[in-house]
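Task: sequence design from structure.
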């Protein structure tokens, strides 16, 4: 259990005071035009949708205790809206959009709240629309467009979605972590355990139920509005508020796999070759723990339990070789810092989506000495829970993403850059830097042209590609030294990674929106032609810019 720090307590008190004042309707927020527009919009919402609008988060009025804490990143939790809305129907969302547009108040839409940066799905001084009550899962009898399907509410969490589908012996292409929300993942891409065989989530959506900028409730599919359907397949929050997704379903199977952890024998020699700044101000306790951690690592290596970064990287790349390649495999390879012991470990989350014990595709990993492995046959829900157990929320976050051609020398360089930059922030409380490799295969991309195609701009001839991403979790005060230091590291890693990949001729412009930092221009990576088409579609369907920068500034804008 983490204790609420004094700073966070102060923040929550300020938050409660401000919200309570709003509840009394006696305060005009800040006095600026936008604040009074939002104050009036919130009053109108309260009058039209009294049960769904909350000015205040005082204990009596909290609609759900985790309304704030359900955001994954602390930076999002700290954003204070003028009011919250928790709509229960498409009609509610339509009413809300009409009011918001009329008053010119800015807003944000939240499904599972796992976007990492402030204001991506929360509106400072505006209206935060929390879609949590759209959490139904319904099998569509008779299917959709000749395919078996299910209607999934945007506000559900993947763990609950899969549980409900399991009762019918079905699954869908969705998130791998049970706590992640449906909406955000489905609007950006959606890499799942079954993506090699069935494509990304956006290529499995047969129909969207959407609230458009003029408040219309519309069904958007390839047959009803092909341009908007194409734009929704990867275009993020720029085109409307989705209430439900009709998704293709697949038969549920058992799967094999789990987490594998590797200690590294070459980390200290590798670190010594890097251009590392002077040691950070460690305390006596952290220094002692560091000595202990490194001692444990050394002893484990002497006993033969360690591998090297090179062997781990080679094992990762072997899974993409023709002879090993497997349509039912999914692999997340990561290098992560363990702050308590001041050591780096490598891991492989390897999943085979058929009940095949020790599938050959992962044989290179099995040959590496490891210190922990949870590989076993299990239901998918076990693997979704396991992924969640290793990805705790409730920290500040800085992320970044890059796409490259698979290359041992380049991936070595990217790891070195990440190690070098992370070293300067190792002393920050609760720091967990980790860097992740995930492949995009020809099979995945081949689904991207189905049913009119998606807007990501990826071609089968580009594959195989690797998404190289990083996340840095940490604790600190809002806008404090920690934010400054970690943001600077994140920026440098992104810049140096891109420069290195370009210099080696292995850079690809695509940036996965769901792993990107808010500073990254993800739509540039979709290609100029696709971006221009997205802008035209936005102008056609949303001429007043309701879902663009003007009223919905958070998230990635076309
Ligand atoms: C622990 C963890 C595990 C992850 N695992 C995976 C994974 O396995 N595969 C993968 O592909 N990605 C994964 N991701 C990335 C994830 O897809 C993104 O973070 C995604 O944005 C989360 O969706 P959400 O609904 O929880 O987020 P939110 O923060 O609620 O939304 C994200 C964005 O989508 C917009 N949005 C949300 N709902 C709607 C809606 N109904 N209508 C219009 N706009 C909307 C928001 O405004 C915001 O801009 C993971 C992230 C984390 C933190």
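Answer:
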């Amino acid at each position: 259990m983490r204790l609420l720090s004094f700073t966070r307590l102060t923040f929550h008190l300020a938050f409660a005071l401000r919200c309570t004042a709003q509840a009394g309707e006696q305060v005009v927020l800040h006095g600026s035009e936008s604040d009074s527009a939002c104050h009036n919009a919130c009053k109108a919402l309260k009058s039209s949708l009294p049960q769904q609008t909350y000015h205040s988060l005082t204990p009596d009025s909290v609609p759900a205790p985790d309304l704030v804490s359900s955001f994954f990143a602390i930076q999002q939790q700290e954003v204070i809206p003028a009011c919250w809305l928790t709509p229960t129907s498409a009609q509610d969302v339509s009413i809300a959009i009409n009011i918001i547009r009329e008053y010119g108040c800015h807003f944000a839409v939240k499904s599972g709240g796992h976007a990492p940066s402030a204001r991506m799905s929360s509106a400072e001084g505006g209206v935060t629309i929390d879609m949590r009550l759209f959490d139904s899962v319904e099998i569509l009898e008779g299917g959709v467009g000749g395919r078996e399907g299910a209607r999934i509410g945007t506000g559900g969490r993947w763990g609950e979605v899969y549980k409900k589908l399991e009762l019918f012996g079905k699954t869908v292409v969705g998130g791998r972590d049970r706590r992640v929300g449906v909406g955000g993942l489905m609007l950006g891409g959606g890499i799942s355990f079954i993506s090699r065989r069935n494509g990304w989530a956006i290529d499995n959506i047969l129909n969207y139920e959407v609230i458009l900028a003029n408040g219309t409730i519309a069904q958007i599919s390839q047959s009803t509005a092909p341009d908007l359907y194409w734009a929704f397949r990867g275009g993020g929050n720029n085109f409307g508020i989705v209430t439900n997704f009709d998704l293709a379903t697949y038969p549920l199977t058992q799967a094999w796999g789990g987490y594998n952890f590797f200690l590294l024998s070459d980390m200290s020699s590798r670190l010594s070759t890097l251009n590392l700044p002077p040691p950070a101000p460690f305390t006596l306790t952290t220094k002692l723990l560091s000595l202990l951690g490194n001692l444990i690592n050394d002893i484990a290596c002497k006993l033969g339990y360690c591998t090297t970064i090179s062997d781990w990287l080679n094992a990762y790349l072997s899974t993409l070789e023709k002879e090993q390649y497997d349509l039912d495999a999914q692999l997340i390879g990561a290098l992560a810092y363990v702050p308590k012991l001041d050591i780096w470990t490598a891991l492989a989350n390897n999943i085979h989506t058929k009940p095949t014990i020790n599938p050959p595709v992962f044989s290179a990993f099995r040959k590496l000495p490891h210190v922990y492995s949870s590989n076993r046959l299990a239901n998918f829900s076990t693997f979704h829970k396991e992924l969640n157990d290793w990805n705790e929320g409730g920290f500040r976050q800085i992320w970044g993403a890059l796409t490259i051609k698979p290359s041992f020398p380049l991936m070595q360089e990217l790891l070195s850059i990440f190690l070098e930059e992370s070293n300067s922030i190792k002393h920050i409380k609760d720091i967990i830097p980790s860097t992740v490799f995930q492949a995009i295969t020809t099979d995945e991309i081949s689904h991207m042209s189905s049913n009119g195609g998606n807007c990501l701009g990826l071609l089968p001839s580009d594959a195989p590609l690797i998404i190289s991403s990083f996340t840095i979790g940490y604790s600190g005060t809002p806008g404090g030294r920690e934010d400054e230091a970690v943001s600077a590291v994140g920026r440098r890693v992104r810049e140096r990674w891109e420069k290195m990949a370009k210099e080696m001729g292995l850079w690809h412009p695509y940036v996965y929106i769901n792993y990107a930092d808010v500073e990254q221009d993800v739509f540039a990576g979709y290609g100029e032609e696709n971006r221009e088409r997205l802008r035209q579609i936005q102008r056609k369907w949303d001429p007043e810019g309701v879902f663009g920068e003007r009223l919905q500034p958070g998230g990635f804008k076309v």
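Confidence is low (pLDDT under 50) at residues 1-31.
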